[in-house]
């Protein structure tokens, strides 16, 4: 009986492991995402529909039309307009911080590289700019301010080409002492990365190193003009007359970038972006107590252009949740604890100010958590468990003899030959 007990224990653990692997194994898309039923991925379908219905009713004119939900690499929900193609606006910023990560991986710079190492004239008239590091520009704590010119109804914040090439009075100093959401910081970082460090336009580098390997084919990056003899892509997604809104893509395509980050920079066995840089970019880099114009929004809740759940902006979502967001309409949420990507895009912003939008998302996440919890508790049909028993000197799985003393042959209840219901 000792032999049978040992085999029983081993096969029982194997069966449990097989079931766990089938639920948690992550896949990657080829030309398109693999589609799976919500219940196959541990999500209660009725509760999921309730969460989507809430979004459709409360998230403004676009509702859930451009919603895509991925779990473990499988597409479990797609809205009717999930192939809609348009600008991301400020969600573009995470494309720029991704390029920063690639160049750090290459050893061409570090987060503590000073901006003046690459733009020696930056501090000629404003000595405070001598202290700006790349990490400051990537976390809205640089305080860089360029001259604002050519303000029009279609370009309310001026021309990025002017303010990225013409330093003006700093908004804050020294760098890192305050936080202020400011596209000027981002455009300055984009200029340094492209013209000085990579010596290659942002789009070209991102396409070669990230977009092509992950199969992101329907996208473009708006051009603001030319700086230092090189195309200047809209690094911040600023609304402008040229290169408006930065990155243009679809919800399905944006989900690929989210999936790369969910897998900590790894795609089909290849490390495209180091895990350590993914971790840094997506965890809080702006201290909770840091003052400044944007402290109520960013302090304790901002990484390297990724919004974090550090101070629980979305209490119903897991603590490690992070998001790219643009124009109050375009969002890419990465939820590591749920192995999930939620992309919602649109052409009109969510109702209300930022705090009200956070409440809308929090209610959505509460309903999603309910869908996951309900599935775990039996909200959808479960696979049949392997029942282990003995019959004399024989070992049985689900009532069928699969091992007897002195025999090495039989059916493994974990090999899929049993009826899983």
Provide structural commentary:
The structure is a single chain. Among the domains are: 1-23 and 386-421, no CATH class; 86-249, DD-peptidase/beta-lactamase superfamily (Beta-lactamase, 3-Layer(aba) Sandwich). A hairpin with a 2-residue loop joins strand 15 (388-391) and strand 16. It is built from 11 helices and 17 strands. It has a 7-stranded mixed sheet, with helices on one face. It has a 3-stranded antiparallel sheet with strand order 4-8-5, with helices on one face. The longest helix is centred in the first third of the chain and has 23 residues, at 2-24. The protein is an alpha+beta fold. Helix 3 packs across helix 7. The two termini are 30 Å apart. The protein is 31% helix and 15% strand.
Question: Secondary structure elements and their pairing?
Answer:
Elements lengths: L1 H23 L9 E2 L9 H14 L8 E5 L2 E5 L7 E2 L5 H13 L28 H4 L22 H6 L17 H16 L3 H10 L7 E3 L1 E5 L2 E4 L13 E3 L1 H12 L3 E2 L2 E2 L3 H7 L13 H4 L8 E2 L13 E5 L3 E6 L4 E5 L9 H23 L11 E4 L2 E4 L2 E5 L17
Parallel strand pairs: 1-3
Antiparallel strand pairs: 2-3, 2-14, 4-8, 5-8, 6-7, 9-10, 11-12, 12-13, 13-14, 15-16, 16-17
Helix pairs in contact: 2-11, 3-6, 3-7
